[in-house]
Protein backbone atom coordinates (compact mmCIF):
# COMPACT_ATOMS: atom_id res chain seq x y z
CA UNK A 1 0.00 0.00 0.00
CA UNK A 2 1.00 3.61 -0.43
CA UNK A 3 1.77 6.01 2.35
CA UNK A 4 -1.22 6.61 4.60
CA UNK A 5 -1.52 9.34 7.21
CA UNK A 6 -2.69 8.84 10.80
CA UNK A 7 -6.33 8.99 9.63
CA UNK A 8 -5.70 6.22 7.10
CA UNK A 9 -5.91 8.65 4.22
CA UNK A 10 -3.62 8.36 1.21
CA UNK A 11 -2.38 11.03 -1.24
CA UNK A 12 -2.93 10.07 -4.86
CA UNK A 13 -2.70 11.91 -8.14
CA UNK A 14 -3.43 11.32 -11.77
CA UNK A 15 -3.34 12.59 -15.30
CA UNK A 16 -5.71 11.98 -18.20
CA UNK A 17 -4.63 10.06 -21.26
CA UNK A 18 -3.70 13.15 -23.33
CA UNK A 19 -2.06 14.96 -20.41
CA UNK A 20 -4.32 18.01 -20.39
CA UNK A 21 -5.97 17.34 -17.01
CA UNK A 22 -4.05 16.60 -13.84
CA UNK A 23 -5.53 16.10 -10.39
CA UNK A 24 -4.63 15.14 -6.85
CA UNK A 25 -6.73 13.89 -3.95
CA UNK A 26 -6.59 12.61 -0.40
CA UNK A 27 -8.55 9.35 -0.38
CA UNK A 28 -9.67 6.70 2.09
CA UNK A 29 -8.48 3.42 0.47
CA UNK A 30 -11.08 1.48 2.51
CA UNK A 31 -13.86 3.13 0.49
CA UNK A 32 -12.74 1.99 -2.95
CA UNK A 33 -15.48 0.38 -5.01
CA UNK A 34 -15.94 -0.97 -8.48
CA UNK A 35 -19.25 -0.30 -10.21
CA UNK A 36 -20.87 -2.57 -12.78
CA UNK A 37 -23.86 -0.30 -13.50
CA UNK A 38 -24.64 0.16 -17.17
CA UNK A 39 -23.87 3.89 -16.94
CA UNK A 40 -20.33 3.08 -15.76
CA UNK A 41 -19.90 0.43 -18.47
CA UNK A 42 -20.77 2.89 -21.24
CA UNK A 43 -19.13 5.99 -19.75
CA UNK A 44 -15.94 4.11 -18.89
CA UNK A 45 -15.76 2.25 -22.17
CA UNK A 46 -15.12 -0.99 -20.29
CA UNK A 47 -16.70 -3.69 -18.18
CA UNK A 48 -16.84 -1.48 -15.06
CA UNK A 49 -15.48 1.68 -13.50
CA UNK A 50 -13.64 1.79 -10.22
CA UNK A 51 -13.23 4.71 -7.92
CA UNK A 52 -13.64 6.25 -4.51
CA UNK A 53 -15.87 8.93 -3.01
CA UNK A 54 -13.87 11.93 -1.77
CA UNK A 55 -15.11 15.03 0.08
CA UNK A 56 -14.83 17.80 -2.50
CA UNK A 57 -12.31 19.73 -0.40
CA UNK A 58 -9.90 16.78 -0.61
CA UNK A 59 -9.87 16.85 -4.42
CA UNK A 60 -7.86 19.40 -6.44
CA UNK A 61 -7.59 19.99 -10.16
CA UNK A 62 -3.95 20.82 -10.92
CA UNK A 63 -4.29 21.62 -14.61
CA UNK A 64 -6.92 21.78 -17.31
CA UNK A 65 -10.66 22.30 -17.21
CA UNK A 66 -12.81 19.17 -17.57
CA UNK A 67 -15.92 19.09 -19.68
CA UNK A 68 -19.09 17.80 -18.05
CA UNK A 69 -22.64 16.74 -18.72
CA UNK A 70 -25.71 16.01 -16.61
CA UNK A 71 -27.14 12.51 -16.26
CA UNK A 72 -30.10 11.36 -14.20
CA UNK A 73 -29.21 8.33 -12.09
CA UNK A 74 -31.58 5.46 -11.33
CA UNK A 75 -32.39 7.15 -7.99
CA UNK A 76 -33.77 10.13 -9.91
CA UNK A 77 -30.98 12.41 -8.72
CA UNK A 78 -29.10 14.41 -11.34
CA UNK A 79 -25.37 13.82 -11.49
CA UNK A 80 -22.73 15.89 -13.23
CA UNK A 81 -20.08 13.73 -14.88
CA UNK A 82 -16.68 15.23 -15.66
CA UNK A 83 -14.22 14.04 -18.27
CA UNK A 84 -11.36 15.33 -20.42
CA UNK A 85 -12.83 17.12 -23.42
CA UNK A 86 -9.85 16.17 -25.55
CA UNK A 87 -9.20 12.49 -24.78
CA UNK A 88 -12.50 11.63 -22.96
CA UNK A 89 -10.85 10.05 -19.91
CA UNK A 90 -13.55 9.77 -17.19
CA UNK A 91 -12.42 11.88 -14.22
CA UNK A 92 -15.13 12.22 -11.56
CA UNK A 93 -18.82 12.64 -10.88
CA UNK A 94 -20.57 14.97 -8.45
CA UNK A 95 -24.06 15.94 -7.38
CA UNK A 96 -25.33 18.42 -9.96
CA UNK A 97 -26.28 21.10 -7.42
CA UNK A 98 -23.97 22.21 -4.64
CA UNK A 99 -21.58 19.25 -4.88
CA UNK A 100 -20.06 17.98 -1.63
CA UNK A 101 -18.71 14.58 -2.70
CA UNK A 102 -16.50 13.85 -5.68
CA UNK A 103 -16.79 10.30 -7.03
CA UNK A 104 -13.25 10.03 -8.28
CA UNK A 105 -12.56 7.57 -11.15
CA UNK A 106 -9.26 5.81 -10.60
CA UNK A 107 -8.39 4.71 -14.13
CA UNK A 108 -6.05 7.70 -14.47
CA UNK A 109 -4.54 7.37 -10.97
CA UNK A 110 -0.75 7.00 -10.91
CA UNK A 111 -0.97 4.89 -7.75
CA UNK A 112 -3.58 2.50 -9.23
CA UNK A 113 -1.41 -0.56 -8.62
CA UNK A 114 -1.32 0.19 -4.91
CA UNK A 115 -5.12 0.35 -4.67
CA UNK A 116 -7.71 -2.40 -4.51
CA UNK A 117 -11.51 -2.17 -4.54
CA UNK A 118 -13.25 -3.27 -1.33
CA UNK A 119 -16.73 -3.76 -2.78
CA UNK A 120 -18.53 -4.34 -6.09
CA UNK A 121 -21.66 -2.27 -6.73
CA UNK A 122 -24.44 -3.05 -9.22
CA UNK A 123 -23.23 -6.60 -9.65
CA UNK A 124 -26.71 -7.46 -10.99
CA UNK A 125 -25.70 -5.79 -14.27
CA UNK A 126 -22.10 -7.08 -14.35
CA UNK A 127 -21.07 -8.64 -17.66
CA UNK A 128 -21.38 -12.38 -17.16
CA UNK A 129 -17.70 -13.13 -17.87
CA UNK A 130 -16.26 -10.66 -15.34
CA UNK A 131 -16.32 -13.02 -12.36
CA UNK A 132 -14.39 -15.63 -14.34
CA UNK A 133 -11.76 -13.30 -15.75
CA UNK A 134 -8.90 -15.29 -14.17
CA UNK A 135 -9.92 -18.28 -16.28
CA UNK A 136 -9.49 -16.45 -19.58
CA UNK A 137 -6.14 -17.32 -21.24
CA UNK A 138 -3.74 -14.38 -20.97
CA UNK A 139 -0.51 -13.08 -22.49
CA UNK A 140 1.96 -10.83 -20.66
CA UNK A 141 2.07 -8.41 -23.59
CA UNK A 142 0.72 -8.16 -27.13
CA UNK A 143 2.70 -10.14 -29.71
CA UNK A 144 3.29 -8.06 -32.85
CA UNK A 145 0.95 -8.85 -35.69
CA UNK A 146 -1.23 -11.23 -33.70
CA UNK A 147 -3.85 -8.88 -32.28
CA UNK A 148 -4.70 -5.33 -33.19
CA UNK A 149 -4.28 -2.62 -30.57
CA UNK A 150 -7.48 -1.82 -28.72
ZN1 LIG B 1 -7.12 14.33 -21.78
ZN1 LIG C 1 -21.83 2.91 -11.83
What do these coordinates show?
The protein is built from 1 helix and 10 strands. The protein has one helix at 38-44, and strands at residues 10-15, 22-27, 33-35, 49-55, 59-63, 67-72, 78-83, 90-95, 101-105, 119-121. The strands form 2 sheets. It has a 7-stranded mixed β-sheet with strand order 6-7-8-9-4-3-10. A 3-stranded antiparallel β-sheet has the order 1-2-5, with no helix packed on it. The protein is globular and about 50 Å long. The mean pLDDT is 94. The structure holds zinc ion (2 copies).
Instruction: Identify the bound ligands.
Output: zinc ion
User: What is the highest CATH level, the class?
Assistant: Mainly Beta
**Percent strand:** 35-45%
If strands are numbered along the chain, what order do they take across the biggest sheet?
6-7-8-9-4-3-10
Number of distinct helices: 1
Ends apart, CA distance between termini: 30 Å
Run of helices and strands: EEEHEEEEEEE
CATH topology: Metal Binding Protein, Guanine Nucleotide Exchange Factor, Chain A
Mean pLDDT value: 94
Oligomer category: single chain
Structural class estimated from helices and strands: mainly beta
Which descriptors apply to this entry?
single chain; 150 residues; mainly beta; Metal Binding Protein, Guanine Nucleotide Exchange Factor, Chain A; 7-stranded mixed sheet; 3-stranded antiparallel sheet; binds zinc ion
Amino acid sequence: MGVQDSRGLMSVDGICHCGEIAWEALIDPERLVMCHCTDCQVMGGGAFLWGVPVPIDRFTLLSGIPRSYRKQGSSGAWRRLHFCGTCSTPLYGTEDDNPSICSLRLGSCRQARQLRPRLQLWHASALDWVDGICGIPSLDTQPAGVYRDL
